[in-house]
């Protein structure tokens, strides 16, 4: 049997280790990762191997050559012009694959029983078998669900945290029949998970999942790189060590000399031709390559040291990675998680702080303390983007230097000379951050159209008219007043998709940022007709005559954040009386409790003035709470149902788009008007994309997120919604109180539980496996429908916090109480059992 070893990866997240090495050639226990894979294939009687290579291909070919020295037969297929993807590179060698073959990734460590997987494949008569395993946190991997016959029912490539529906993941190992390659186009980039497997499912081909027992680690980032090696030393995975075990847990190469006074605590691996000095302390978990010299009195606590390194006297190394040929001089300290690239020098008494990365061939001066990566910028968390944009503590996480680098990363994903808009709310912190973003964009040759302080609806509306590649908006986070939120829009004004976010993250973390020549530096201009553009669109999509004859009086509370201050001017232009409260700007956003006090005051003013209604505007013009004519707040699910009722009354048979967790009252209202409801994932981008993708959408969003009128612009707009309410109340000749009384009496409750990140995937799989498939909806989280489609329970993992939300919906309150009790207990019990099992494994 032949195996295809996919070894084309450049390993950007492992830099600087992969600056001069392809990822499959990065050493694990002093041997390339791909050599451990070849050892695994040999143990499973697979000795014909075709390696597909792309990044620095000669390094692998020079090392393995024809494979004879390693007991296998090796051939190579080079992707010359561009990477063809996981499936494309295999299609490229289809003429060499005339029988059942195995595809395996060259950048993971595993000891799976591949013979058992192959036997399973043949027994099932499968065309394609995916080798699966279960992991605590599946967010980095492709998630898969199989039925009781092991047929694959569904999979999702690298889900967001809210999309996880299982902890069973794709390991990148496949057993395939050659005819499946006929489904793939020649010489085109394509992927097994994104293209081939969905197509096989669609065509009804037998495609199975084999859940393998044993160890598996995708060496995708620097932490995993270290952890995999510690696991091997502690015998958690079966590998060939390639060195003699001289005493339990101590593997030594030949011609290695260790001073008798050195202390070694197993497990430790030390390579060939090493010299270990007097009184050196080597603690458990340390891995030392070939030809390494360690000076006297050195203290090594779990470092990984590559071949040819020279470590001086009294050096302290702490769980760091020291690459090929690095020299660390006397009394230097390199701390946990730090990585020093090949051929670099660390001077005497220098210190490299935790997590800092040094690129190859760099010189760190004696006595220097390095707190940042030696290219530019600080290291940051692995994911920049959360559920919505980039967020962090103002001037702590989101600092000027962070924003400069983020702007440069975003600009580096665009063509030189591209234009983008930058807008913000009116806070001083937002001005500071937006100016830093502008500096970063200019540095990579991107031109900026600075909209300055602008409500988000206006920024989205003007974007398509400016011929720009996209936009950035900076504001205080609507739910966390001490946080900044940075959002990115595409050229239509919609939040950018996950794929674009990943590109920006890649540019940020690789620190592979474009640097422009002086004459190519970006410019800043200030568009002058932003308000006019928004006003024109606003009037075009509003029945101005109805508003003009409404004689409405509206009270607007800005809660000390003057976003969308253009609204009173617009309403005044149409003959409406707008009374404005709390329009001065406060340096700090009011707390939730303070907003409630302001809302109570708003209700009193509405009553005193006998106003048509009142609104408290928030989120820089995107969201609002409504107050009816008697001063009662209308928000959340009630506001969603009310807006649906009002809009469908005017547009019967229209489409309403709401998030998956919105109240079932929306469907009941829609049925009254022959309307249709589309539910989306619980994130704003999904809502915006669904509103754009479907014809005849008359309203999108929810009371918690805001409302979208797709004909106006693709985002949430509280200002237009307020004007539309005035229009509809006039045309329909009703008050808010009258409309509220007509809404269906649906109960909708939510409970939130703590749920560790590592349990979320297993919890979703447990829920999927313990309910019949026809009772499940897997739009986002797991929704269990109880016969009557208005009765459902939704278990939704939180995208940004270690939480899980349980929603229950019904017109029967007793049913809701019972279901919430049941699912709260089920979820808590499952979390406790998983944590108990994890603690048992740890001990």
Automatic annotation (TrEMBL):
<dbReference type="GO" id="GO:0005975">
    <property type="term" value="P:carbohydrate metabolic process"/>
</dbReference>
<dbReference type="GO" id="GO:0016868">
    <property type="term" value="F:intramolecular phosphotransferase activity"/>
</dbReference>
<dbReference type="InterPro" id="IPR005835">
    <property type="entry name" value="NTP_transferase_dom"/>
</dbReference>
<comment type="similarity">
    <text>Belongs to the phosphohexose mutase family.</text>
</comment>
<dbReference type="InterPro" id="IPR050486">
    <property type="entry name" value="Mannose-1P_guanyltransferase"/>
</dbReference>
<dbReference type="InterPro" id="IPR005845">
    <property type="entry name" value="A-D-PHexomutase_a/b/a-II"/>
</dbReference>
<dbReference type="InterPro" id="IPR029044">
    <property type="entry name" value="Nucleotide-diphossugar_trans"/>
</dbReference>
<dbReference type="Pfam" id="PF00483">
    <property type="entry name" value="NTP_transferase"/>
</dbReference>
<keyword id="KW-0396">Initiation factor</keyword>
<feature type="domain" description="Alpha-D-phosphohexomutase alpha/beta/alpha">
    <location>
        <begin position="383"/>
        <end position="513"/>
    </location>
</feature>
<dbReference type="Pfam" id="PF02880">
    <property type="entry name" value="PGM_PMM_III"/>
</dbReference>
<feature type="domain" description="Alpha-D-phosphohexomutase alpha/beta/alpha">
    <location>
        <begin position="533"/>
        <end position="631"/>
    </location>
</feature>
<dbReference type="InterPro" id="IPR005844">
    <property type="entry name" value="A-D-PHexomutase_a/b/a-I"/>
</dbReference>
<dbReference type="InterPro" id="IPR056764">
    <property type="entry name" value="LbH_EIF2B3/5"/>
</dbReference>
<keyword id="KW-0648">Protein biosynthesis</keyword>
<dbReference type="Pfam" id="PF02878">
    <property type="entry name" value="PGM_PMM_I"/>
</dbReference>
<dbReference type="InterPro" id="IPR036900">
    <property type="entry name" value="A-D-PHexomutase_C_sf"/>
</dbReference>
<keyword id="KW-0808">Transferase</keyword>
<dbReference type="InterPro" id="IPR011004">
    <property type="entry name" value="Trimer_LpxA-like_sf"/>
</dbReference>
<dbReference type="InterPro" id="IPR005846">
    <property type="entry name" value="A-D-PHexomutase_a/b/a-III"/>
</dbReference>
<feature type="domain" description="Alpha-D-phosphohexomutase alpha/beta/alpha">
    <location>
        <begin position="636"/>
        <end position="743"/>
    </location>
</feature>
<keyword id="KW-0963">Cytoplasm</keyword>
<keyword id="KW-0597">Phosphoprotein</keyword>
<keyword id="KW-0677">Repeat</keyword>
<dbReference type="InterPro" id="IPR016055">
    <property type="entry name" value="A-D-PHexomutase_a/b/a-I/II/III"/>
</dbReference>
<protein>
    <submittedName>
        <fullName>Nucleoside-diphosphate-sugar pyrophosphorylase</fullName>
    </submittedName>
</protein>
<feature type="domain" description="Nucleotidyl transferase">
    <location>
        <begin position="3"/>
        <end position="233"/>
    </location>
</feature>
<feature type="domain" description="EIF2B subunit epsilon/gamma LbH">
    <location>
        <begin position="250"/>
        <end position="352"/>
    </location>
</feature>
<dbReference type="Pfam" id="PF25084">
    <property type="entry name" value="LbH_EIF2B"/>
</dbReference>
<dbReference type="GO" id="GO:0031470">
    <property type="term" value="C:carboxysome"/>
</dbReference>
<dbReference type="GO" id="GO:0016740">
    <property type="term" value="F:transferase activity"/>
</dbReference>
<dbReference type="InterPro" id="IPR018357">
    <property type="entry name" value="Hexapep_transf_CS"/>
</dbReference>
<dbReference type="GO" id="GO:0043886">
    <property type="term" value="F:structural constituent of carboxysome shell"/>
</dbReference>
<dbReference type="Pfam" id="PF02879">
    <property type="entry name" value="PGM_PMM_II"/>
</dbReference>
């Amino acid at each position: 049997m032949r195996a295809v070893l996919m070894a084309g990866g450049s390993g950007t997240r492992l830099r600087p280790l992969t600056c001069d090495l392809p990822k499959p050639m990065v050493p694990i226990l002093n041997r390339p990762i791909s050599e451990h894979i070849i050892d695994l294939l040999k143990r499973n009687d697979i000795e014909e191997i075709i390696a597909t290579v792309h990044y620095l291909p000669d390094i692998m070919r020079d090392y393995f050559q024809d494979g004879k020295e390693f007991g296998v037969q090796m051939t190579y297929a080079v992707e010359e012009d561009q990477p063809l993807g996981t499936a494309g590179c295999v299609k490229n060698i289809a003429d060499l694959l005339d029988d059942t073959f195995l595809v395996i990734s060259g950048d993971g460590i595993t000891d799976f029983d591949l013979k058992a997987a192959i036997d399973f494949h043949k027994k099932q008569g499968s065309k394609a078998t995916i080798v699966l395993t279960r992991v605590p946190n599946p967010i980095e991997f492709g998630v898969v669900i199989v039925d009781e016959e092991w047929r694959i029912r569904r999979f999702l490539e690298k889900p967001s945290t809210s999309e996880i529906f299982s902890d069973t993941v794709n390991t990148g190992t496949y057993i395939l029949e050659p005819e499946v390659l006929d489904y793939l186009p020649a010489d085109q980039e394509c992927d097994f998970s994104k293209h081939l497997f969905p197509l096989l499912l669609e065509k009804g081909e037998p495609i199975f999942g084999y859940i393998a027992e044993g160890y598996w680690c995708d060496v995708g980032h620097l932490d995993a790189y270290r952890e995999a090696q510690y696991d091997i030393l502690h015998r958690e995975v079966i590998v060939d060590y390639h060195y003699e075990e001289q005493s339990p847990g101590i593997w030594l190469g030949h011609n290695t000399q260790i001073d008798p006074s050195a202390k070694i605590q197993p497990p430790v691996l030390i390579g060939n031709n090493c010299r270990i000095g007097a009184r050196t302390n080597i603690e458990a978990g340390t891995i030392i390559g070939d030809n390494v010299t360690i000076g006297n009195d050195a203290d090594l606590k779990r470092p990984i040291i590559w071949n040819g390194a020279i470590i001086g006297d009294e050096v302290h190394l702490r769980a760091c990675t020291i690459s090929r040929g690095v020299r660390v001089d006397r009394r230097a300290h390199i701390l946990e998680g730090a990585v020093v690239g090949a051929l670099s020098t660390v001077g005497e008494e220098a210190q490299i702080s935790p997590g800092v990365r040094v690129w190859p061939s760099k010189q760190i001066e004696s006595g220097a303390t390095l707190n940042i990566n030696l290219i530019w910028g600080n290291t940051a968390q692995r994911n920049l983007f959360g559920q919505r944009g980039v967020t962090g503590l103002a001037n702590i996480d989101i600092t000027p230097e962070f924003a400069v680098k983020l702007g440069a990363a975003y600009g580096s994903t665009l063509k030189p000379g591209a234009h983008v808009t930058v807008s913000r709310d009116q806070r001083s912190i937002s001005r500071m951050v937006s100016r830093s973003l502008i500096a970063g964009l200019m540095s990579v040759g991107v031109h900026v159209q600075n909209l300055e302080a602008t409500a988000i609806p206006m920024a989205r509306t003007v974007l398509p008219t400016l011929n720009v590649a996209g936009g950035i908006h900076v504001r205080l986070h609507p739910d966390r007043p001490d946080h900044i939120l940075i959002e990115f829009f595409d050229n239509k004004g919609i939040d950018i998709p996950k794929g674009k976010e990943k590109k920006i993250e890649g540019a940020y973390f690789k620190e592979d940022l474009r640097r422009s020549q002086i004459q190519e530096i970006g410019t800043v201009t200030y568009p002058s007709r932003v308000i006019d553009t928004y006003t024109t669109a606003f009037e075009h999509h509003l029945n101005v005559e109805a508003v003009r004859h409404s004689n409405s009086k509206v009270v607007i509370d800005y809660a000390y954040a003057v976003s969308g201050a253009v609204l009173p001017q617009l309403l005044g232009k149409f003959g409406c009386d707008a009374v404005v409260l709390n329009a001065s700007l406060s340096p700090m956003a009011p707390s939730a409790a303070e907003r409630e006090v302001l809302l109570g005051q708003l209700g009193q003013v509405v009553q005193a003035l006998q106003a048509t209604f009142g609104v408290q505007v928030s989120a820089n013009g995107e969201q609002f709470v409504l107050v009816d004519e008697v001063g009662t707040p209308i928000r959340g699910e009630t506001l969603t149902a009310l807006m649906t009722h009002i809009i469908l009354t005017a547009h019967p048979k229209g489409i309403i788009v709401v998030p998956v967790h919105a109240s079932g009252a929306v469907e009941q209202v829609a049925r009254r008007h022959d309307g249709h409801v589309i539910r989306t994932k619980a994130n704003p981008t999904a809502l915006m994309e669904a509103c754009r993708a479907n014809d005849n959408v008359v309203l999108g969003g929810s009371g918690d997120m805001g409302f979208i009128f797709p004909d106006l612009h693709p985002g949430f707009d509280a200002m237009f919604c307020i004007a539309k309410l005035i229009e509809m109340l006039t045309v329909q000749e009703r008050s808010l109180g009258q409309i509220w009384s007509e809404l269906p009496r649906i109960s909708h409750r939510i409970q939130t539980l703590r749920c560790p990140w590592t349990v979320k995937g297993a919890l979703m799989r447990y829920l999927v496996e313990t309910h019949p498939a026809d009772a499940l909806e897997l739009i986002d989280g797991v929704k269990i429908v109880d016969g009557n489609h208005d009765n459902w329970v939704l278990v939704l993992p939180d995208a940004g916090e270690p939480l899980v939300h349980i929603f229950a919906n019904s017109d029967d309150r007793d049913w809701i109480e019972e279901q919430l009790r049941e699912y709260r207990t089920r979820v808590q019990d499952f979390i406790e059992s998983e944590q108990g099992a994890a603690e048992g494994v740890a001990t």
